[in-house]
Design a protein that fits this description.
The complex is a heterodimer of chains A (112) and B (111). Chain A is 0% helix and 51% strand. Chain A is mostly beta strands and 112 residues long. In chain A, strands 2, 5, 6, 10, 11 and 12 form a six-stranded mixed β-sheet that branches. Helix content of chain B is 0%, strand content 50%. In chain B, strands 2, 4, 5, 6, 9, 10 and 11 form a seven-stranded mixed β-sheet that branches. In chain B, strands 1-3-8-7 form a four-stranded antiparallel β-sheet, with no helix packed on it. In chain B, β5 and β6 (54-57) form a beta hairpin. The chains are: A mainly beta (112), B mainly beta (111).
């Protein structure tokens, strides 16, 4: 079956540091890949997505590239801000309305 | 603005009582979903519905029930049979091929 593995947190960084949150997956076929962000006490927001190999999703300075050869979708940002402190979830979905498989989430804490 | 609303944000109930969580969307999405979130466990799917009057069990459906009488609405009932109901509940919706759009969540506490 499908599964998503994320690096465990918390990830603690100083403002303006470089961010990488690792995500690898196991899936049949050619899934779509997503990153969601959850701020404290709120629901999840779609941050970015990629639907096929070598696609790069980007939004708000965050990027992730769909690497089929390494089954990875690592999240990166060149310079984090305190406001980026949140929990980040990697997820995958096969086509149609099939269920979305989430990783366990990685908490990011950014200090001034 | 289009979006998903969940009410209330916080809900308190006594053990043994059924409780219904509301979820409404005005995005004209066909599919709706209920997830449960516990600390350190990510999100787990409770039920989902791809079309009005039809729904399927997710990974942890025991102790929960849903209905889908209207496209816009997908209420979740947490029954007294659910052994550990205290959690953060998230509703979501989607069109085919898109990611999920999530509501703000309802935090249920059962004592």
């Amino acid at each position: 079956g499908n599964s998503v593995t994320q690096m465990e947190g918390p990830v603690t960084l100083s403002e303006e540091a470089f961010l990488t949150i690792n995500c690898t997956y196991t899936a049949t076929g050619y899934p779509s890949l997503f990153w969601y962000v959850q701020y404290p006490g709120e629901g999840l927001q779609l941050l970015l997505k990629a639907t096929k190999a070598d696609d790069k999703g980007s939004n708000k300075g965050f990027e992730a590239t769909y690497r089929k050869e390494t089954t990875s979708f690592h999240l990166e940002k060149g310079s984090v801000q305190v406001s980026d402190s949140a929990v980040y979830f990697c997820a995958l979905s096969n086509s149609g309305y099939s269920t979305l498989t989430f990783g366990k989430g990685t908490m990011l804490l950014v200090s001034p | 603005d289009g979006g998903i609303t969940q009410s209330p944000k916080y809900l308190f109930r006594k053990e043994g009582q059924n409780v219904t969580l509301s979820c409404e969307q005005n995005l004209n999405h066909d599919a709706m979903y209920w997830y449960r979130q516990d600390p350190g466990q990510g999100l787990r799917l409770i039920y989902y519905s791809q079309i009005v009057n039809d729904f399927q069990k997710g990974d942890i459906a025991e102790g929960y029930s849903v209905s889908r009488e209207k496209k816009e609405s997908f209420p979740l009932t947490v029954t007294s049979a659910q052994k550990n109901p205290t959690a953060f509940y998230l509703c979501a919706s989607s069109m085919e091929g898109t990611g999920r759009y999530f509501g703000p969540g309802t935090r249920l506490t059962v004592t």
